[in-house]
Each structure stands twice: as C-alpha cells, then as structure tokens.
Amino acid sequence: MAITINGTTGISGVDGSAGTPAVQGTDSNTGVFFPAADTIAFAEGGAEVMRIDSSGNVGIGTTSPISKLEVKAAGFVAASISSDSTSETQLRFYTNTAARISQQANQALIFDTNATERMRIDSSGNVGIGTSSPQGKFNVGGGRSVFGANSETYSIGVGYTQARVNSGQTYYIGATDSATPDLVFSNAAGTERMRLDTSGNLLFNSGYGSVATAYGCRAWVNFNGTGTVAIRASGNVSSITDVGTGQYTVNFTTAMPDVNYSAQVNARVAGVITTGVAAYDVTNTTSALFVVTYSTTTAVDCTYVNVAIFR
Description:
The chain is an all-beta fold. It has no helices and 28 strands.
C-alpha cells in the first residue's frame, strides 16, 4: 500500500476497503477506509460497522443512513444513555418547531421503567398504562390511578382544577378503593355530593345533610280526561285508556320492576270545588295503573289529571 505525505494535502494514498482499511493499526482488517466520494467508513474484523456519508449522515449497521443518525441491526438494537454518578440522565430537544418521537413501523411505541413496561401507544393510537392491550384511546389498568388530584380515597379517578373562577379548587370524580367500588362525585372542599353504588342506586345530598339514596319518578303524565282523552306531557307513559266516566288506565312505556310502586294522583275539573282521586291497586300491573277521579262519591271526568309513579 502506497502512502503519500504532502505538505499541502497531508497524508493520502489508496481508499482501502472493509477487508483492508486505508488506515489501520496492527490489526490489518480493522480501521478506516473511503468507500465513495466524500464518505468515510469504519471497519472491524473485515466488515463495515459505521460510515459518514456525503450528506453528513451517520449510519451504524447500514451503508445508506436516511437521517443524521441511523442505527440498524438484523435483531435487537438499542441506544443507551447511562451515568456512573447519581446525577440524572436526560434526552433533550432544542428546536424552533415541534420535537417528535416517532415509531415509523405499524407497531407499538413502548415506555419502560425498572426494566418493566409501564405505558404504550399501540399502532391504532390507543394509549395503555398498566396494560399492554389498551381497548380505547386511553386505558388504565392495574392498581390505584389518580389524575389531576392526589387522593388515597379512590382507586381510579379524574380531578379537575379550576383555572379561573375559584382558581386552584379541585373537583373530583372517582371510584372507591374496594372490591366493589362505587362511583363518587366530590366538590372543591372534598365533600362527597353524589354516589352511584354497585347496585345501580343513585345517592346524593338533597337536603339530608349527607348523601342518601335518591328514589326516582319512574313514570308521570298530565292529561285531559274529558271527551277524547289527550296527553299534554308525559314520561314513560305510552297512552291513556278511557275506561268509563272518571276511569282511566295509565299504560307504561317501560314496565315497572314489580307492582309494589306508589302512585300519586291528583285531579281537578272546572265548576267542581272538591275532586277526589283514588287508585285501585287491586287492578294494578307492572305495565299499567288504573285510576278513578271523583267528586264526593261520584266519578267525574276531569280536565286536569296528574299521575306520578315512584318505586
């Protein structure tokens, strides 16, 4: 191998190859060679391991790097940043536009701590924390999870800190930390205001002084019982059947769970001072309620009949 030493150009000679590098030590197949114009390559054991191409791109494990640094291998490949001291290690980006961490293949992007997977973004864009198979856009699995507020009361929850009015106050929605968790709603003072228990009961503070079970109105109707019966407004009532003078059947859209419900009925008719109302439970079913309206002891059709069902 001929080497030329020139005061103007420096040291020059052959380009060499991976098997016989142009610059080498005592190991004849390890060193530096020049495979193309404006390209520097490094060989180890007679094989190219790294190059800097004419664009300034660095390739490790590839002869055609597509970015400033590309690392490629047939199997597992990793880049490590480590420190021998107790100081933290950091990966920083300095740019005048957005910084990007990108998984170019149709595969997941996974984040580990303590050599264990903690979070992943799958190929569909779903984010999983504590699960390797997120079922939605954001899926949290495993143990206690708290977002936006730190509370040991809940196993999982969402906190919202108000930014403007009452700045800094945190409101909370969470599931209680138990084998059969309830869904709880709390105000800024941390006071529970409403709860949905595992039996599906809704509990809230409505003048009780504490959270208590709320019993909903399962059906209601306001109708004109004179002439052709006409419903003015209703909820869970499909129709009214005119059975006779002052007698009606209220038909439910969705049936009651049983016949042990409470029916509240009131009515009035023009020109009649007192109009009594009775509901005959002997004919009640889960799908209909029989109602009679009367004045004194005489059944009469009423202009306004109001019925509400509670259970």
